Amino acid sequence: MKQRIHFNEVVTRDGFQMEPEFVPTDSKVALINALSQCGYAKIEVTSFTSVKAIPMLRDAEEVMGRIERVPGVEYTVLVPNLRGAERAMESRPDEFNLVMSTSETHNLANLRMPREHSFAALRDVVARYAQQVPINVSLSACFGCPMEGDVPQAEVLRWAQRFADLGVRGLTICDTTGMAHPEQVARMCDVLQARFAHLQLTLHFHNTRGMGLANVLAAAQSGIDRFDGSLGGLGGCPYAPGASGNISSEDAIHMLDAMGYDTGIDLARLLPIARELPAIVGHTVPGQVAQSGMITDLHPAPPSVAELKKEFQ
Amino acid sequence: MKQRIHFNEVVTRDGFQMEPEFVPTDSKVALINALSQCGYAKIEVTSFTSVKAIPMLRDAEEVMGRIERVPGVEYTVLVPNLRGAERAMESRPDEFNLVMSTSETHNLANLRMPREHSFAALRDVVARYAQQVPINVSLSACFGCPMEGDVPQAEVLRWAQRFADLGVRGLTICDTTGMAHPEQVARMCDVLQARFAHLQLTLHFHNTRGMGLANVLAAAQSGIDRFDGSLGGLGGCPYAPGASGNISSEDAIHMLDAMGYDTGIDLARLLPIARELPAIVGHTVPGQVAQSGMITDLHPAPPSVAELKKEFQ
User: Whole-angstrom distance between the N-terminal and C-terminal Cα of chain A?
Assistant: First the structure.
């Protein structure tokens, strides 16, 4: 028996975050409402970071206030610190997602502070809010840092342990710039599951070097049952220019589905939404199944086939 | 210990075949000569099909005559029938690659004859030439037909057995339109290796639905040690429009390399060649590692990191 797989859709947060053109609030709300009907376990709706840092998500309160929440779907939000947590709490999220990097350089480049400062800020959020809302921590650069290179597995486990000790509900282990390979993933997932069996463990992959779905496969084979994905494969990292970003949710779901995993997702409903994404962001997106169709979508034979069949009867 | 992996580069045949603009003979020869220095086990140079059917490869004789052959690299050519075989033989290839489909509809659409006719034509080639040159048979649509749908594994094995009985050296099992998923691949590879242990078994994947490298992973995990790949991911199938085609050689090699497989390929030499491909064909290509760099290619930290390090000292 294969484990049931739970998907967390991050397109409106991680996917939109770096887009140059503001996506109107109406479009965000409509997109999340459509995604809510597809069977996701979780949707990362937005971020309560400073409006100046990420202007794309300046409408966090309004989006959270306007979406129609579907029972069974968790609506999570990114929270950077206590101030963000206060703002976030008012919009009644189902989860806080806290983020820091396991690489010192990556944390400095992205969050503009040393890891210890990030940890202290996030520890305050956990201390203040863990009784009110489940907390997940996303650890970046767990399979390598684009500037430092290797990030030892022991270092990832060290940060994971520190948050586990604070009593968080879940950990997301992120391959932020697509540096993971399947063997590294299998090793990491085995150790994580042995050590943090009591936590929700999510894997977050990027397809920067084409290995995204191979890494999903390796993680699923190892028993992991929670994945982040971004519709259309939208979103990336500024430190890996010219490359594709997050794994495409629909491509990953399509693969797992074909392999007989129960993802709970209605692909026939999800693919038309993915096909609207280029119009929302104003450019093509890397996801492939929305273009090629599912493996069960057949093409008509060219007319020559019928003629040839007669000819060779 | 992991098996040594052998790569067959198909870009100048399978990759170029459907390109709308003729690639000059000089460019083809220069590309093959460059690829010959990278450590490939085999290069599929061209095809001796009718010039009318595939005008792109009308210079088959000239290309085969002009390339510099590197010891240790096999130069194979596609041969459709006895007439093609006669032409091909004069250019002293190291292997004939014969092709037919395991799907009747796909064979009619692509080769304009029933499978039995294709088999008879290819059987004649084997009978006439097997003593002079090693023969490989590529079976198309082994993981599904874009028009018929499922192609049962038993059907693939039946055609494989018929060619094995003729005494061919190798079989290439092709996922011609990217319909395979990793579990199907693992099952197929296990059975193939049990039944045809005496043959060279090659797997040929497409990345049409993003599963290309996941399928490579599944096949390698099952023990398969030969793969086709196309530089840049060039090439596709007319029955899966708008989708990416063959797996990118360099992306697959990069993944296997990172996992500790010995592919024999010098990626540092191969990637610059992949980066020239868009100029040769006049458009971008899907391969990702040529754009993003290898996982060992690091990026400089932004200047802010040094400032922040000082600030937080």
Answer: 46
Give 3-state DSSP helix, strand, coil % of chain B, rounded to 5: 45, 15, 40
Which chain A residues are within 8 Å of B243, Cβ to Cβ? 288, 291-292
Q: What per-residue confidence (pLDDT) applies to B313? A: 83
Q: How wide is the angle at C-alpha A110 spanned by C-alphas A106 and A111, nearest 5°?
A: 110
Handedness of CA B301, B307, B308, B312 (dihedral sign): positive
Q: Of B149, B208, B302, which is closest to A292 when you measure between CB atoms?
A: B208
Q: Which amino acid belongs to residue B90?
A: E
Phi (first) and psi of residue B13, to 5 degrees: -105, -75
Instruction: Name the pLDDT band for B244 (thresholds 50, 70, 90).
Output: confident
Q: How far is CA B167 from CA A132, B76, B127, B160, B161, in A?
A: 71, 18, 9, 11, 10
* Residue B237, pLDDT score: 60
B120 to chain A, any CB pair closer than 8 A? The answer is no
For residues B169 and B204, the answer to whether their CB atoms sit within 8 Å is: no
pLDDT band at B243 (very low <50, low <70, confident <90, very high): low
pLDDT at B83 over 80: yes
Q: What's at A287, amino acid-wise?
A: G
A210:B259 CB<8 A? no
CA distances from B270 to A68, A214, B34, B68, B249 (A): 51, 22, 8, 17, 9
Measured between beta carbons, the chain A residues lying within 8 angstroms of B5 are none
Best A106, A305, A307 member to test B by mutation, with max B CBs in 10 Å, is: A305
Which tens digits make up the pLDDT trace of B217-236?
999 999 999 999 999 999 97
**Residue A150 contacts residue A115 (beta carbons within 8 Å):** no
Question: By the 8 A CB rule, do B145 and B175 touch?
Answer: no
Cross-strand bridge partners of residue B164: none
Per the structure block, which two tokens stand in for B31? 């590309």
**Segment A125-131 long-range contacts (CB within 8 Å, at least 24 positions apart):** A125/A79, A125/A81, A125/A82, A125/A85, A125/A96, A125/A98, A126/A98, A126/A163, A126/A166, A126/A167, A126/A168, A127/A166, A128/A82, A128/A85, A129/A85, A129/A89, A129/A96, A130/A166, A130/A167, A130/A168
pLDDT exceeds cutoff 80 at B291: yes
B174 is catalytic: no
Adjacent-strand bridge partners of A174: A204
Give the CA count within 13 Å in the CB-facing half-sphere of B120. Answer: 5
Q: List the domains of chain A with CATH numbers.
A: 6-311 (3.20.20.70)
Q: For chain B, say whether A144 makes contact (Cβ under 8 Å).
A: yes
Q: What is the tens place of the pLDDT at every residue in A142-200?
A: 999 999 999 999 999 999 999 999 999 999 999 998 999 999 999 999 999 999 999 99
Q: Phi/psi at A227 (nearest 5 deg)? A: -135, 145
The yes-or-no verdict on residue B85 having pLDDT over 60 is: yes
pLDDT exceeds 90 at position A241? no
Average pLDDT across chain A, whole number = 95
pLDDT of residue B5: 98
B131-153 burial code (b ≥16 CB/10 A, e <16): eebbbbbbbbbbbbbbbbeebeb
Q: Are A291 and A278 in contact (CB under 8 A)?
A: no
Contact B294 A260 (CB under 8 A): no
Is the minimum CB–CB distance between A245 and chain B shorter than 8 Å? no
pLDDT for A207: 95
